[in-house]
Amino acid sequence: MTCHDYKDLLMGYLDNELNDEQRRRFEEHLSGCPECAGELEEFKRLKAITDEVTLVEPEERIWQDYWGGIYNRIERGLGWIVFSVAAILLTIYGGFRAIEEIIRDPKVELIFKAGLLVLLVGLAILFVSVLRERIYFWKRDRYKDVRR
Questions:
Q1: How many Å apart are CA 22 and CA 39, to the nearest integer?
Q2: 46 and 7: one domain?
Q3: How many domains does the structure of the chain reveal?
Q4: What is the helix (H) or strand (E) element at residue 40, kind and residue range?
């Protein structure tokens, strides 16, 4: 075994998780490897420090502030989502009503009506194209599960 293999056993040795054979081989290696022995001593000191660390429970006021902050963020986020959806729906509805009035109005020239329809068809094609591209790359994004 190499030093690297023994370093994998180091924490198990400190936590008393090695079987008798592994422990014997590890101690044998330690007697002839000052690098691993030094690393073991460093980990022993670190373990002694971390064993003395105690968890202090936060005060009730801190928990209330924490949960209050989360609820505020959820409420505000939900409020913005509802507001945005309503604004989009009203804008779309108003846009369709305005276009319908323009198309039905006999005073508006035919070329303007045709141009408006072509503009809408082009907008719809672009929307579908961008949406299709987003869906394609969303399914194949290698980094979508990476937290930022």
A1: 18
A2: yes
A3: 3
A4: helix 34-52
Q: Name residue, tokens 């002694």.
A: 48
Q: Are 76 and 92 within one domain?
A: yes
Residue 73's domain comprises 59-108
pLDDT in the model for residue 125 = 92
Give the Cα separation of 144 and 140 in Å (integer): 9
User: What's 111's DSSP letter?
Assistant: H
Q: Determine the 3-state secondary structure of 58 from DSSP.
A: coil
Tell me the per-residue pLDDT of 60-114, one tens digit each, with 9 for 90 and over.
888 777 777 777 778 888 888 999 999 989 988 998 898 888 888 889 898 988 8
- Tally of CB atoms within 10 A around 16: 7
CA distances from 19 to 2, 13, 30 (A): 19, 9, 16
- The residue among 143, 147, 92 whose CA lies nearest residue 120 is 92
Q: What's the pTM value of the predicted model, to 2 decimals?
A: 0.38
Summary mean pLDDT of the chain? 85
